[in-house]
Each structure stands twice: as C-alpha cells, then as structure tokens.
Design brief:
By secondary structure, this protein is of the alpha/beta class. It has eleven helices and 14 strands. The structure holds nicotinamide-adenine-dinucleotide and uridine-5'-diphosphate (UDP).
C-alpha cells in the first residue's frame, strides 16, 4: 500500500485525516514539530482503530519542515525501507489568523519557507503528488453569494497571503516541470467538531480565537461568556454566516483528493471544501444549546477587524470531481465537538 507523508499530522485536521487514511489502508509517515499539537493524538487514533495491525502502518518523526536535512533523511529512509513516500498531504503551518496580523514574518517564514523546503525535497526524491491545506480566507467576499474557486482572491491577513503564496509556488512548480506534478489545493471553509468517539479533537495550545472552540469553552464554563462580533450584518439575523463542515467530512475529502490525484493525469487543481450550507453565529449557538442541552451566555460586541458577513462555499466542483460529498450536519458537528470537549477539557 502507498506510503503518504503527512506534515502537521498530529494537529486537528491532520489527526482526523490520519484516521481516515489508515482506515483506507494507507501507510503513513507523520511529521510534526508539535508547536500547536501533541503527538498523543496518534495514540488516540490507534485507540480508535483498536488493532495492533495499525501500529506498523504509522511512523512519527518529531521535527520541523524548515529543516531540510530532517526531511531529506525521512525521504531517503522511506526508500531504503522499501516503503517509498509516494504522496504528501501538507498540513504543517501556523493558522491563527489574528496572530498573523501582529507577527507577519513568523507566518511567512514558517508557512512559506517551510513549504519551499518541503517542495524542494519532494522534487529531489521524485515525489510529485501533493494535497495542500489552503483556506477560504484567501477570498475577498463582500457579497452574500456562495464563493466559487474562480472568485476574487484577495486575502486581508498575512495568514491568508501565505496560503495564496504557497498555491502560487505550487502552480509555478507545476508549470515549469513539464506538468509532471499532481497538485490539489483544498480550500477549507470552517471545519468544526470532532471524531464521534470523542477521543480526538481540536486542541489549541494557546487561547482559541475561532468561534466553535470558544463556544465549547463557554459551555464547560472555562470562558464565562461568548462575545458575538456584531449583530447588524446584512444577514437574516444580523450575525455573520459561515460554512461549517464536520472535521470527518473534511478528513474524508483528503482521502478522496489523494485517490483522485493518483488515478488521474498530472494536474493542478483548486477545490473548495465546504458543505454549501450557511449557518449564522446565532444559529450555531442556538443549535449547540439545543443539541447538547446546555447554556451559552452571550453578548453582542464590536465587529472584529476584517470580518466578512458571508463565507459559504460553492461546492459543485469538488462534489462532481471527487468521490466525496459532506454527510454530517450541523447537529452532528455540535454533538461530536462537545463530546470531545467534555471528555478532554484540558486537551490530550
Ligand atoms: P493545527 O495547528 O492543529 O495543525 C497544524 C500542525 O502543523 C500542528 O500540529 C503544528 O504543530 C504543525 N506545524 C506547524 N508548523 C510546523 C513546522 N514548521 N514544521 C512541522 N510542523 C509544524 O491546525 P489545523 O486546524 O489542523 O490546520 C491544518 C492546516 O489546515 C493548516 O495549514 C491550516 O492553515 C489549514 N487550515 C485550517 C483551517 C481551520 O479552520 N482549522 C481552515 C483552513 C485551513
Ligand atoms: N465570532 C464571534 N465571536 C468569537 C469568535 C468568532 O462572534 O469569539 C464570529 C466571527 O465574527 C465570524 C464567525 O464567528 O463571523 C466565525 O469565526 P471564526 O474565527 O471561527 O472563523 P472565520 O471568521 O475565520 O471564518
């Protein structure tokens, strides 16, 4: 079975994707610096799978993608062990959008330079299949219409700019290498929730900034009140609308993306990964309270700088090209996310 390198594989999306890939039989080489994660997530993934058979299918190396020597050794060893890395899912990166506004150089250095190191070593070892974690934050959507892959790209934060830069670098590699690479940029909308077991989930090591982990912490009492950023947006209830997607649906999109790349000719493709369904902040909060029978005290506060009223995917391209469609609804996202938070209030 194919060996896939997962950078950032112990993180939130990485750990859920590792689980989905292992279920599909792939061998995994995981690397992570653990700057925002714990390698305990791998033990939990194995616990969910409940089978020693999987022990041999995962190897983990703690290290940084900016360390080319480290990357080189991993690719070389995979060849020596007759388990050549044939594809990469590249999650490793810093992702705190607001932090990137204050520390742009840290984001450019980690995300863009790190990616350059990775692509260079991939090229050296003739590994030319990659799924890259891009983001809906690259779009500038001031309208109330779903976003197409061809919609305007104009990120308003250094974080989003690093994602565009990496997509552009990959496009350049594709065009200048006689079109020999297979590249899929998956532009995620808002992943939330956790695996239904409650054994793995989002584990931000610093104070969370995103809505869903904050809602979970308000529910368990570790944050006393949710602040909803603005209630006079041009939406039905005045709060901003997002396209929340269950983390396991997102994980499965990576499996489908890899399958697609391996089965098809070299290409460079951008795909929105969302449900196509918009949910407002207020709707999410009310659904969370209803499904989990708990209270989320909230108050309205000032709008957050750079926020957008409506960020929802047009997902026709991904659902027509990949053998994938989102299966889990907002109730399940709220239930599974809360189950993880309740059972693991301090993370792993
Ligand atoms: P995460 O922080 O849980 O995972 C990222 C992982 O990368 C972490 O485990 C971190 O330790 C590791 N990492 C960071 N820099 C590294 C480096 N230089 N070398 C090695 N490891 C490094 O975040 P996530 O939510 O799982 O996001 C995964 C990817 O998806 C990121 O690239 C993120 O930008 C992107 N993304 C996330 C979201 C989201 O809402 N979670 C949305 C769009 C895109
Ligand atoms: N949000 C909020 N209070 C918070 C965090 C977020 O009202 O404490 C809102 C935010 O304004 C946005 C939505 O929740 O409209 C989703 O925010 P998040 O940061 O999770 O995702 P993004 O804005 O990056 O899509």
């Amino acid at each position: 079975m194919k060996n896939i390198l997962i950078t950032g594989g112990t993180g939130y999306i990485g750990s859920h994707t590792c689980l989905a890939l292992l279920k599909r039989g792939f061998n995994l080489t995981i690397i992570d610096s653990n700057i925002n994660s714990s390698s305990l997530s791998i033990s939990r993934v194995k616990k969910i799978l409940k089978d020693e058979y999987y022990d041999e299918k995962i190897v983990f190396f703690k290290g940084d993608i900016r360390d080319k020597k480290f990357l080189d050794e991993i690719f070389l060893n995979s060849i020596k062990q007759n388990n050549r890395i044939q594809g990469v899912i590249h999650f490793a990166g810093l992702k705190a959008v607001s932090e990137s506004l204050f520390q742009p150089l840290v984001y450019w250095e980690n995300n863009v330079y790190g990616s350059i190191c990775l692509f260079e070593i991939m090229g050296k070892y003739d590994c030319k299949n990659i799924v890259f974690s891009s983001s809906a934050s690259i779009y500038k959507n001031n309208s109330l219409k779903p976003i197409l892959e061809t919609s305007e790209i104009k990120p308003c934060t250094p974080y989003g700019q690093t994602k565009v830069a990496i997509e552009n670098i990959l496009e350049g590699i594709f065009k200048t290498s006689s079109n020999s690479w297979r590249i899929a940029n998956l532009r995620y909308f808002n992943p939330i929730g956790a695996h239904e077991s409650g054994l793995i989930g989002e584990n931000p090591l610093s104070t969370p900034n995103n809505l869903f982990p904050i809602v979970c912490r308000v529910a368990d009492g570790s944050i006393c009140e949710l602040q909803i950023f603005g209630n006079d947006w041009p939406t039905n209830d005045g709060t901003p609308v997002r396209d929340y997607i269950h983390i396991m649906d997102l994980a499965e999109a990576h499996c489908a993306g890899l399958d697609f790349l391996f089965k098809n000719k070299p290409q460079f493709i951008n795909l929105n990964v969302g449900t196509g369904i918009g949910t407002s902040v207020l709707e999410l909060v009310n659904k969370f309270m209803e499904v989990n029978n708990c209270r989320i005290p909230y108050k309205y506060s000032q709008k957050r700088l750079g926020d957008l009223p409506f960020v929802v995917a047009e997902n026709k391209l991904i659902t027509s090209i990949l053998e994938w469609r989102p299966k889990r609804n907002i109730e399940q996202m709220c239930r599974d996310g809360w189950q993880w938070q309740k059972n693991n209030p301090n993370g792993f």
